[in-house]
Amino acid sequence: MGKAGTILSIKPPFAIPGAEIIVECEGFELDLAADCGVFANNVHCRTVAASHERVIARLPEDIEGGTVQVTLRSGSEISVPKPIVVGKMLADDMHMVANPAVDPADDSIILTRSGSRGQQLPVTLYRLEADGYLDEFPEPILNPTSVAFGRDGELFVTNRAQGEVYSVDRSGSTSIFASGLGIASGLAFDKTGVMFVGDRTGTIFRVHDFADVETFAVVEPSVAAHHLAFSPSGDLYLTAPGFASKDGIYLITPDGGVTTFHRGLGRPQGMAFDISGDMYVAACHSGRHGVVKIKADGSSSEHLVSGDNIVGLCFTRKGEMIVAASDIIYSIPCGIYGSILSH
């Protein structure tokens, strides 16, 4: 076996640059007088903790995305490598506070540069084309928070500073669709095309049509944006991140009742679903930051993607997970498929 030992597993299986990974191993011997620890594509990772059976390390911030070969080294001895998939950077200098969204018309990705509350930036909405080109929308929306596409493929954006929802046409022109929505943050559409908006002070609004707004449910306030998402079966879910280490994820019934779907995650934020109904949520799982997978019935959860500052995610038709880590957007080829509107 040698001093480098044998890698048994790497957890979680996906990560973004700079993320913390756990290498489970056997027979690893520390050699403090020489190169020792975890290496990713032959680049030394910063060691967080190490023992004979486990090494916790951080991937380099500048590591290239793709399949990365991880090895253990102790002096001149190197273990047999095991792979981990690392996200590829698609865009930076953003300011995401919720999920990105895939345009059903052309598979481009809608991104935001939200800014602090009340801060008007010259450009706040972007379209990341399939070829990697980043287009600016011509009309800025103040503090864009959530972005989502309606049943007809039209883009909608919440403005948390003024409690409004804007519609955005293909040319980028904007118009107010609904107002009086408090600190409008979360945004989602049901199967019939009805809009739901989360006010972070605790109200979920139902918007039937232009300016036709009613209170649908009342939930606990959040210290950050409320996040809303519908599952493939048509159930509405909500996260309301707080300061607790075991926040809840909530299921809102068709009559506006609120029940706890899953509890035990730290600061859960943006959610997405795969076609089988399993949930993926940006959160902290047992002290590990990233994306957590929760079974459709809420019975179990696992840390799937490691990464700091992840606030939202979505899936593409190619089985990629698009991860928003505040100012940087990554693509992770994970082979998971979500529901995307047909158009």
Commentary on this structure:
With 343 residues, the protein is an all-beta fold. The chain has strands at residues 6-11, 14-15, 20-26, 36-40, 43-44, 46-50, 54-58, 66-74, 77-78, 82-86, 88-91, 101-102, 109-112, 125-128, 134-136, 144-149, 155-159, 164-168, 174-178, 184-189, 195-199, 203-209, 212-218, 227-230, 236-239, 247-252, 258-265, 271-273, 279-285, 288-294, 301-306, 312-315, 320-325, 328-333. The protein has two domains: 6-86, Immunoglobulins (Immunoglobulin-like, Sandwich); 88-333, 6 Propeller (Neuraminidase). Strand 16 and strand 17 (155-159) form a beta hairpin. The relative contact order is 0.14. The chain is elongated, with a radius of gyration of 21 Å. It contains no helices and 34 strands. Strands 2, 4, 5, 8, 9, 10, 28, 29, 30 and 31 form a ten-stranded mixed beta sheet that branches.
Tag the structure with descriptive keywords.
343 residues; Neuraminidase; 10-stranded mixed sheet; Immunoglobulin-like; mainly beta; single chain; 4-stranded antiparallel sheet; 2 domains
Please summarize the sheet with the most strands. Answer: 10 strands, mixed
Overall tally of structural domains = 2
Instruction: Look at the structure and name the CATH superfamily of the largest domain.
Output: TolB, C-terminal domain
Query: In percent terms, what proportion of residues is strand?
Result: over 45%
Task: Provide the helix percentage.
Answer: under 10%
Based on the structure given, which CATH architecture of the largest domain is correct? 6 Propeller
The average pLDDT is 94
Quick one: CATH class of the largest domain?
Answer: Mainly Beta
- How many strands? 34
Please tell me how large the radius of gyration is: 21 Å
Span from first to last CA? Answer: 56 Å
Low-confidence spans? none
Here the CATH topology of the largest domain equals Neuraminidase
Describe the global form.
Answer: elongated
Structural class: mainly beta
Number of helices: 0
